[in-house]
Design goal:
The complex is a heterodimer of chains A (about 230) and B (about 120). Chain A is of the alpha/beta class. Chain A is built from 8 helices and 7 strands; from the N terminus they run βαβαβαβαβαβααβα. Chain B has 4 helices and no strands. Classes of the chains: A alpha/beta (about 230), B mainly alpha (about 120).
């Protein structure tokens, strides 16, 4: 018999950080199952995650962040977990914050809780361009859904089974699930909450925002995805 | 259209038509993808033989020369083919995604059972 909660950690070439992240999470929450989803890494991510005691699901090849997250949702639904927390494997998300997020879901206050990085305790700093982009999408999200969310790109999230049931379907975006997912949740009547969490800079990995072409694609895709989500029945 | 041009066009269109049928027969091409090609080959033959129809269509779309009409429809055809491929690639991407996810979960289940 397993616990009712699952922590999923998507990872792509995170051998330098994954052991520490899993070990710390396991130490803090010994009763919660931890699954690392290895998105076709070519380094020792799988070995390190297994060494730290996580269950590892490995994609046969690299498929992107959204697909990796969804594999975790599918695993949770298949194994009948009631709650899921997702956090990154690069050490940016502080596992301590799960303590704040999870009770809000279990208590029924929200269906989804997003970890907001813009808090007093967070040392996370973002570039001016990314900051402007975030403000534009935040405003766009507010116009389309009426939701006021400060950190629309946070990958640190906790959710219940009702949300998982929606996310395992093909409506979940496969590439960059951000504001469009919040809009999808809002449209389906889910209660979305935000809590301040500690977040650290990514020390080793390269952000997808460092490639200008990726940024152009992201902006275009996100606008399109949000509009389609809004008009889709 | 001069007779020589007409013969060459009919010959090429018939060759495409036969090639597509042969590819379907050999199961190298699925019927699903062949219909647009077959329809195009058939249209070229019809318009080449029935010249009045090509001239009427040219007037209808406001083109000056019948050749422009042929190029216009050729471009539309290519766009439709690309669109059909994009739809198919999207479906295949989704199917590959679902298979890869299923594979990852099943592999982990097998590994856990082996360890137990």
């Amino acid at each position: 018999m397993h616990s009712d909660t699952l922590i999923t950690i998507p990872a792509y070439n995170e051998e330098r950080t994954i052991l520490k992240v899993v070990a710390l999470t396991k130490k803090l929450y010994p009763d919660i199952d931890i699954v690392v989803i290895n998105d076709g890494s070519i380094d020792g991510t799988t070995e390190m995650a297994e060494k730290a005691g996580a269950i590892v699901l490995s994609h046969p090849f690299n498929m992107g962040y959204g697909v990796t997250l969804q594999t975790g949702y599918k695993y949770a639904i298949r194994n009948n977990y009631t709650y899921l927390v997702q956090m990154d494997g690069d050490g940016q998300h502080d596992p301590e914050s799960v303590k704040t997020m999870l009770p809000l879901i279990k208590g029924g206050s929200f269906d989804v809780v997003l970890g907001c990085r813009f808090s007093d305790t967070s040392v996370y700093k973002m570039s001016i361009f990314r900051s402007i982009g975030m403000k534009v999408f935040r405003f766009f999200l507010y116009v389309l859904s009426g939701q006021k969310i400060s950190d629309i790109t946070s990958g640190f999230q906790a959710m219940n089974k009702r949300v998982l049931s929606l996310f395992v379907s093909d409506v979940f975006p496969s590439d960059y699930p951000d504001a469009d997912v919040i809009l999808l949740l809002s449209k389906n009547g889910f209660k979305i909450g935000e809590v301040p969490v500690a977040m650290y800079p990514n020390l080793y990995g390269k952000s997808m925002h460092s490639n200008p072409l990726n940024v152009v694609y992201y902006v275009f895709k996100m606008f399109l995805s949000m509009l389609i989500t809004k008009i889709r029945t | 259209m001069p007779l020589r041009q007409q013969i060459v066009t009919i010959f090429i269109a018939a060759a495409i038509f036969i090639l597509i049928l042969e590819l379907i027969r050999r199961r190298k091409l699925l019927e699903e993808y062949a219909w647009l090609w077959l329809m195009t080959g058939f249209s070229i033959i019809v318009l080449t033989i029935w010249r009045d129809a090509l001239i009427k269509i040219t007037h209808l779309i406001g083109a000056v020369a019948p050749q422009s009409t042929v190029f216009f429809f050729a471009v539309i055809f290519l766009i439709l083919i690309c669109l059909q491929f994009s739809i198919k690639v999207s479906n295949l991407t989704n199917q590959v995604k679902n298979l890869a996810q299923e594979l990852a979960i099943l592999k982990s289940e097998i590994q856990l059972k082996k360890q137990a």
